[in-house]
Specification:
Blueprint lengths: L1 H8 L12 H12 L1 H15 L4 H4 L2 H20 L3 H5 L2 E5 H6 L4 H13 L5 H22 L6 H22 L8 H6 L1 E5 L10 H31 L42 E4 L5 E3 H11 L14 E3 L5
Antiparallel strand pairs: 1-2, 3-4, 3-5
Length: about 325
C-alpha cells in the first residue's frame, strides 16, 4: 500500500512512468480552476472604476465562456489535453485503450499505432471535454452565488465537491484510473506525454507560462488585498464620512407603501415593528415577516420599489 501511494505521488516510484502523479493532476486542476475567479476579480475592478464600461463588461461571463471553449477546443484538438493539462505535460486518452494493454502483443502494437496517429480520443469525447472545460467553471461560480431560496443548488454543489474528493482519493490509492467523475462519465483518463509526443514549438509554452504567472498573481492578490489595504491606511487620519441619503419613497401609483410618521412603525403593516429587519437596498426598517412576504411576492423593496432579493434582508436587534 505504501508503494502504491508513493507511486501516485511520485511517478518514478514503481516504474509507472505513464501514470501522472497526484501532484501533477492537482496542479493542473488548480490552475484551471483559478482562471474564472481571477477574471471575475479583474472585471469587478474595471466596472467599479469605470462605470461607463459596464454596458460592455457586464457580458464578460458569456465572452469568457466562448473564449475558453475556443482555446480548449484548439488545445484538445492539437494536443489531446486542456491548456492546464498540456502545461503539466499531460494528455487525455480513452480508457478503452487501457483495456487492450497487456492482452497480447498485437493489441499493444495497435495501441501504440493509435497513439502515434493521435487517434486516442473519439469525436464525442473531444466534444464533451471542451463542453465541460468551458461550462463547468461558470456553473460552479453561479452555484456559489445563489441565495437561500435555492438551497438545493448549494446542496448539489457540496455533493459534487464530496464526490470529486472521493475520486481523487480513489486515484491516489490506485482504486480508479479516473481523476474526476466527469472523466469517468466520458470515459477518459489522463496520462503523461511521452518524449515522442512532446511539443516542439516553444511559443505556446511561453504563452502558457505567462498565463500561469498572471493567474497565480491574481490569486495571491485576492488573498492579501485586505491586509495590503489596511497597511496602506495605517497612520492616516480618519475621516468621518457622512452616511448617504436614503432614497426617496416611491409614489402610491408606482406601488410604494409610503412612510409612517412614527419611525418605530413598520411601513407595511403600520404597527410597531416586531423582529425588525432592514432592507440592504434602501436602508428602511420593517418587520422581518412583513419584509420577507413583500420581497417574495413582488421582488421589490416596499417603500422605494427597488429590485430586491431575499438575501438582501438583514436582521436587526434593537434595544428594548
Amino acid at each position: 500500500m505504501t508503494d502504491l501511494i508513493l507511486s501516485s505521488l511520485y511517478p518514478t516510484v514503481g516504474g509507472q512512468s505513464s501514470r501522472p502523479s497526484y501532484m501533477e493532476l492537482a496542479g493542473a486542476a488548480d490552475l484551471s480552476a483559478g482562471v474564472w475567479p481571477s477574471v471575475k476579480f479583474v472585471m469587478a475592478v474595471l466596472m467599479d472604476r469605470h462605470p461607463h464600461l459596464q454596458r460592455w463588461l457586464k457580458h464578460w461571463p458569456s465572452a469568457l465562456t466562448f473564449l475558453l471553449a475556443l482555446l480548449e477546443y484548439t488545445s484538445i484538438t492539437e494536443h489531446r489535453a486542456s491548456m492546464s493539462e498540456h502545461f503539466f505535460g499531460l494528455c487525455r486518452e480513452s480508457v478503452d485503450l487501457r483495456k487492450l494493454e497487456g492482452l497480447s502483443a498485437m493489441d499493444e502494437l495497435k495501441v501504440d499505432r493509435l497513439r502515434e496517429e493521435g487517434r486516442v480520443l473519439t469525436g464525442k469525447q473531444k466534444a464533451l471535454s471542451v463542453l465541460l472545460l468551458s461550462l463547468l467553471p461558470k456553473l460552479l461560480d453561479k452555484s456559489q452565488g445563489r441565495g437561500s431560496e435555492r438551497q438545493w443548488v448549494d446542496l448539489m454543489r457540496r455533493g459534487f465537491v464530496a464526490v470529486d474528493a472521493a475520486y481523487r482519493i480513489g486515484y491516489l490509492l490506485g482504486i480508479s484510473p479516473y481523476w474526476s467523475p466527469f472523466m469517468h462519465l466520458i470515459g477518459v483518463r489522463l496520462v503523461r506525454r511521452t518524449g515522442e509526443e512532446a511539443p516542439q514549438g516553444m511559443g505556446l509554452r511561453h504563452l502558457l507560462w505567462c498565463l500561469v504567472y498572471a493567474i497565480q498573481f491574481g490569486q495571491w492578490y485576492m488573498s492579501v488585498r485586505s491586509s495590503l489595504r489596511s497597511k496602506a491606511l495605517e497612520g492616516r487620519p480618519q475621516v468621518n464620512v457622512p452616511p448617504p441619503a436614503r432614497p426617496r419613497p416611491a409614489s402610491a401609483k408606482c406601488g410604494g407603501v409610503g412612510l409612517p410618521v412614527d419611525k418605530r412603525v413598520c411601513p407595511v403593516c403600520r404597527k410597531k415593528r416586531n423582529n425588525p429587519a432592514v432592507s440592504a437596498v434602501s436602508g428602511y426598517v420593517y418587520c422581518y415577516v412583513c419584509l420577507v412576504k413583500a420581497v417574495r411576492g413582488t421582488g421589490k423593496d416596499p417603500v422605494t420599489q427597488f429590485d430586491m432579493r431575499e438575501e438582501q434582508i438583514l436582521r436587526l436587534h434593537e434595544p428594548d
